[in-house]
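help with these tokens:
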Amino acid sequence: MTDAEIIERLMEVNDDFRKLKEEHAKLEERLEELQNKKYITVEEEIEIKAIKRKKLELKDKMNEFVVKVKRGELKI
């Protein structure tokens, strides 16, 4: 099973994974919104950095789910 297939299945059956993925998507939307602005304020630059950190944290957590499935520690 590929990572993409595992992620698709986790989205269907695991509420915790789905919440992480949805939060990651919302942060991505906000990040794109900020980065598409012609001018960015200091506060927005700080927000961009915070969003990037949070997205990375969420991605790491989602990856933990994938690894657990591959190891057989989590059934899907």
